[in-house]
Amino acid sequence: MSQYIVSARKYRPNTFDSVVGQGHVTDTLTHSLLSGQVAHAYLFCGPRGVGKTTVARILAKAINCENLSKEGEACNVCPSCKAFDINSSFNIFELDGASNNSVENIRALVEQVRVPPSQGKYKVYIIDEVHMLSQAAFNAFLKTLEEPPPYVKFILATTEKHKILPTILSRCQAFDFRRIPVPEIAAHLRTICTTENIQAENEALVIISQKGDGSLRDSLSIFDRIASQSKGNITYAGVLESLQLLDYDYFFRMTDALMREDMTEVFLTLADIQKRGFDGEAFISGFSEHLRDVLLCKDTATATLLTHGDKIKARYLLQAQAIRKSSLITYLDLINQCEINYSRALNKWLHIEMALVRMCYMHRRQENETIAPSGAEKKKPDQSVSVVPPTTKSENGKAKVEEIPVEIPEVKPPNAYEEHSEPNVKKETKPLTSLSGGLSSLADQAADMAIPSLKGLGSLKKKAEDQHEEEKKKIPVLTLPPILDFWKEYIESHSSPSLKQTMLEAIVEIKGEKMIVIRTGHQTGKNRITAESNLLDGLRSLVRVPELQIVIDIDPDLDKSRDLIKPKKLLSNREKFEILAAKNPLINNLRDKLDLIPDQED
Length: 602
What we know:
Helices cover about 50% and strands about 10% of the residues. By secondary structure, the protein is an alpha/beta fold. Among the domains are: about 5-175, P-loop containing nucleotide triphosphate hydrolases (Rossmann fold); about 180-245, Helicase, Ruva Protein, domain 3, CATH 1.10.8.60; about 480-560, GMP Synthetase, Chain A, domain 3 (2-Layer Sandwich). The longest helix has 17 residues, at about 280-295. The chain is flat, with a radius of gyration of 42 Å.
């Protein structure tokens, strides 16, 4: 069995040109090598797995190369380069700051620095994770780092630049390594697949690159794990199954169902996700990212920010054309509120379902708020009524009224997939009910459909005022008994003993017509009640008073923990004897027989 080498080591770059995603660093270093302006100390900063240590090794190899190429690359032919390739170079030292972080280690390093190299031009010290050095070690290293011998170069690497002392930073040339973009990681993985004769779908490589989170080493680790179980064929479905990720198809189906207001499809899709073993947090996170990507596709300028494959990007562009931007923004706001309150929800999946219900019927709620503000009656669409003058015929001296055709428009609801949809008006002719009362009844019916004249505005105003007064009477009155009943039920149903005790000691009062005051004895009790969103929302749902205020105050008089235990009074011997005699009268007989006299004082 041959020795297996992971891709992160097997395909580790050995030239500046092969470094992935750090061109701003490698270009500067090659120019410095070609111009002979190599600094005595470098500091490479950045997240994990982006090539800090790799670039440090390439730089150390190039510094000692005897035949540097025109591009600033090592020749790989000279004795120094060959010794470096087989890890036998005596001029390049790689140290770990985590295991060499004491003052003694730095002192030993300073002693080694004083000895010139036996071969080559420079001694190069690569110190990885330099932020792990102690404060004393940093101070001991300052002088040597600032003025090292001319034959010594230092290359420091760290993932936490903020932990480096400013005095160290000022003595080094700092280079910030960036996270590697997804397309560049995917292109590097495609090169490895070609070399290893592995078949891979583009969407699968994009998913692996996204899961790497900008780290090429993490992406290569995921790639090795999936390649080992895919038997030479990496598919999109296989990557999703291996990484336990939700397929994008679920998010597209969910968005389509929300636009159609198809609540059945919403619940079935969510149930399918739950059956596959995914938790609610994974769905919320993935759906939020999906809506954000759809919003980016609304504009061609921002659509380039998507990191998905071509097939999935085409689906995003298609769905972005079918949904309004205002709807997307509202969806994002609702799913964001759902994610914020997810950790506090007792029933996680019900919390997600209610958020999706709000998203599903969002348009109807907005229409109700626009058409019928302040609780007024919802207006019906205007109906244009055309009344044809009646034709009367006299038969036997009796008046005959014919049916009058009336045109009533049928308004079709707007299509959710259209940006600006006009109502589709379909005219339908319906006969007016036959009248048996002659022309006078017909005139009365026509008068009801007529537009009121200016003379009737006073009566309309009075009618509106009367209606407003009736609406005010319907507003519920804030009373204490139902609130106290709800308070007791909540105490009995809750499982937390500390909250129960706090609610039992608290006092609930009503001030004015729109305020509920809850008084508790200490700050801890106030925090407990404030954190109970179900309690406060339940009170608002119970009372339903507009602009209701719930105030939680601290009343020190209710703090029972402040009542100190009063010390007991010390009793004298005579008082003790009298208490015992009161409990048992025979003690008096014993005192008389023995002629005992209790002491007055203890």
